[in-house]
Amino acid sequence: MVHPTSSDPTSTSQSRRRKSKRRLSLRALLFRYAMTPALILAVLLCLLFTLQQMSDRRDLLLSHCRASAEQLVELIHLSDGYAFEERIQWLDKSLMALMLERDMIRSVQLYRADRNSEGVEEFKLISSVGPRPRTTFTADELRGKSAHVHEDLKSLQVLQPLIGEDANCWLSIELHRPYFLVGTYQVALVGLVGLIICSLVALVWAVAMSERASRSMDRIKESLRTIGTGKFATRVPNSHNLELFQLGEEINQMARNLAEYHRDYQEGLHQTMEDLRQSLDAMEEQNIGLEIARKKAEENSRVKSTFLANTSHEIRTPLNGIIGFTNLLLKTEVDQLQHDYLQTILRSSENLLTSINDILDFSRIESGNLVLDHSPMNLGQVLEETLQILAPYGYEHNLELVPFVDPQLPPSQIGDPLRIKQILTNLVSSAIRCSENGSIPVRIAVLSGKESELMVRISITDNGKRCDEQCRHELRLMLTGTASQQQLSNSGMGLGIARNLVQSMQGEISLDDNDQGGCTYWIQLPLTIDRNRIGVTREQFPGCRLLLVDPNPMTRQQIYQQLSYWRAAPLEHTDGENLVPAVEQMWRHDALPDGLIIDTALADNDFDNFISTVQQLIDTYQCRVIIQGSPVDLRRCYDALRTRVLAFLAKPVSREGLLRALKRAVPQQAQSRPQTGTFPALPWPTQPRVLVVDDYEANRRLMGELLRAQHIEATLADSGEEALRLWREQHFDMIFMDIQMPGLDGIATTQTIRSEECGRRTPVIALTAHAGTEEKSRLLSAGLDDYLSKPVSESQLTHTVKRWMEVSAPGDTARPLTTLMEPRLVDITESLNLANQDGRLARDLLRMLLKGLHEDEQELARMAQSGDYLAMFERVHRLHGGCCYCGVPRLRTATEQLQELLRPLQEKQPNSGSPTTPSAVGEHLDRTAFDAAYQLVRKEVRGLRDWAADQDLDALFGLECAENSAESRSS
Predict the structure, then answer these.
(1) Beta-sheet pairing, 169-175 with 105-115
(2) What angle do CA 270, 271, 277 make, to 5 degrees?
(3) Any bridge partners for residue 559, and if so which?
């Protein structure tokens, strides 16, 4: 709806007309200003004159009446010696003479107060001339009063008492009002005539003044109109009025100034035109200089991009080897301490990679060229790895980082794990800087899920003990993007990168206050569920009773929730001093838990007492103990407890680490069930052949190992020339091409392949350490099909291979489901899973185990007969380790049980001061349980040997068909 006053032209014009009507001309103003004071003054003077004349006439009239009354009273007094009748006659004559003498007198009366028959005093008229007075008086009203004038609306009378009379006698003279009114009218008429005369004089004067002023203003207006047309020589004539003369002088001065300015303007215009013509050549020169500066800026930008790309290449190339071979080494058999060291190397390398990405991403965000990766990942594992990297920084401030992962989170998602790790690193680092002495929980919660879409929320909570309100305000400015870049510190740059990365992922990031005086950083990210991953199993420990001994409620809650998800029965204990009595009480009531998870926080820097307490629990009550704590605390007690404790669990506790520790501590309680909501991976219809081209030997070997782990035949080439030769001689389903190589680089090699190939197009995947967005555009436009940035993880490689190659499953094959029935003697599917679906590797591992079974059986029989239980423990331990890499679940379970029975004997040996005999060692052994476990191992070994005698391992693992197809292709 439009306001009428702003849009209606009719109302606008009416308003303007009303305003113009209210405007008065100078003539009218001068007329009013001259006429109004004169009229007011004349009216005032007329009124004053009229009133003054009326007052004077009235006073004169009254004075005459008083004088007459006084004379008459004096005469009456002088005639006091005569008779009353004579005096009355004389008085009548005198009153009549007074009436005839004065026209202004209406009547004259003489009153005397006499008493009547009732004794009441009343006035009696003694003598009277003229009509009866309009107003009469009583004797009481006049008694004791002096001469006075009585005036009301009816009459005007002069009352005079008689002199020397004992009686109450009064002389009343009533004046004639018409006589008085006629005089008043005369005075008023004179005043009105004077007013009219004064008004006429004022009117003439006002008209003369207004006409004179109007003529002067018309002359000034005409002069201004003439000057406005450009005739600056026009002048206003002089005036006799001082103000008008000054106004005319100012207008004349303005005209002179305008004439001068006009002259200067004309001269300046000509000069400006001349200068403009002269500056055209200078502008042309400046344009040439600007063009040169633009090209120089573009060159500087190109040099900057090249520098970033080269820096990324030089750092990522060795990182690719470090991360890749560390992952491969983690798959081999290493002890727990070495496994932790390797995990530290891996996470530190990934942290360095995250720092590199921070620098590159900051440049990309500024230029708007940020491109996100889409690869398979496990968000919970990404969180746990990030917290394990940042844990040492937290321990410096007595902080524990505690991850909480929602059990509803699918095992695999599609996202950018490196940049999510950047976001988490920056936010958790900021929370550590704001906290001290406590815990920082980091939670992943699934908010919603629809088909393949998933919305997750990640929250980080600090306690705010090292951050004031100003710091909180700066954090909010950084997270909302309102802080200027000049105000950003290193932490501010990290938070700014985190905010931009979250926004690039179509997510949200914010900061909320919490009840602890700190704040909670939270982000919401949309992810895609990866449904093409291998189906994982859900581990379960049904009914397993585990005692959690940890004074920190936050870490205790984390492990309690995870154990509950695995269907275990966790118990909680917080007091380290009462731990031994509590365990003893459980032992007495035959309620000893299956395992104890003890935190090194109970030591409180007294590790000697802590170690002795753990040893007492193991030796006295035969407890299965898992020690958890920071890596520094674990190293302080590792040497003393490594032969006693079943597992060491580094904090922050990851789900994988906790599962590995539980499988080692309570293996008999573990069960595996298929994870619902996942789909098994489809096998290759034929074994793919892939060409890997890289001039760096470590990268070639790593790619070969990763591809062979995916059941892919990999051919390696160290240069572009060799790659062309192999491509011309053989058929490859896919090529991984390094870009930066001496001689013929990856782009030139790819362009040669594209120019020579015919028919089917071979996918060529760029494999380079360059990480710039413009690099990816350049590679795709050069003929490559996809882009992988080093270091390449196994999940990224698998995802890329599956996307660019056809994957189909035989229609008549189906993966067997895991059930709770008795496991089979040999499980080929489990062997393939343990060998990462590498049939040759699974066959070789099983063949090595079968080859040594005869010798193992003979040695175990000899040791059991001689009672050499210490040597038997080592032999069974080695045999059990071989079973862990093959699909022989029954033999693996039997050797594990026998190993756990012999472990206490092995743990007591190093603590003794002198060598012990086998009989002394065997005294602590449960013979009945030992005999049963030993016989079970012998039974499974013989059954496995009998099974192997009638089986063809190549046929079981499907290697004959693969070799035949390979021979047919080579022929």
Answers:
(1) antiparallel
(2) 95
(3) none
Paired tokens of 346? 């891996």
CA distance 17 to 24: 13
For residue 275, pLDDT beyond 90: no
Cα separation of 700 and 716, whole Å?
Answer: 6
In DSSP notation, 687-720 reads --EEEEE-SSHHHHHHHHHHHHHTT-EEEEESSH
CA distances from 339 to 384, 446, 478, 494 (A): 16, 31, 39, 31
The H-or-E segment that residue 555 falls in is helix 553-565
Q: Which residues pair with 629 in a beta bridge?
A: 650
Tokens coding 672 = 């595996």
C-alpha span between 376 and 371 (Å, rounded): 16
Q: Which amino acid belongs to residue 375?
A: S
How many CA atoms are closer than 13 Å to the CA of 544, on its beta-carbon side?
28
pLDDT at 148 exceeding the cut of 70: yes
Q: What is the pLDDT of residue 533?
A: 55
* Region of poorest pLDDT, from 516-520, 659-663, 877-881, 917-921: 917-921
Distance (Å, rounded) from C-alpha 223 to C-alpha 233? 10
Total length of the chain: 971
Q: What pLDDT is recorded for position 477?
A: 74
> Taking the CB of residue 765, how many other CB atoms lie within 10 A of it?
22
Decide: 110 and 101 in contact? Cβ < 8 Å: no
Beta strands in 595-659 (DSSP E): 595-599, 625-629, 647-650
- As a whole number of angstroms, the distance between CA 772 and CA 727 comes to 29
- Which is more confident, 229 or 90? 229
Q: What is the pLDDT of residues 634-656, one digit of tens each?
A: 888 888 888 888 888 888 998 88
Please give the average per-residue pLDDT across 499-513, as a whole number.
86
DSSP string over 770-834: ---HHHHHHHHHTT--EEEESSPPHHHHHHHHHHHS-----TT--PPPP-SSPPPS--HHHHHHH
Task: Give the Cα separation of 368 and 833 in Å (integer).
Answer: 43
Residue 393 near residue 432 (C-beta atoms within 8 A): yes
Reference 642, options 836, 903, 444, 833; nearest CA is: 903
CA distances from 118 to 121, 143, 168, 333, 368 (A): 9, 19, 18, 158, 131
Using a 10 angstrom Cβ sphere, with 0-12 exposed, 13-18 middle and 19 or more buried, the burial of residue 297 is: exposed
The answer to whether the CB of 425 falls within 8 A of the CB of 501 is: no
What is the model's pLDDT at position 404?
Answer: 93
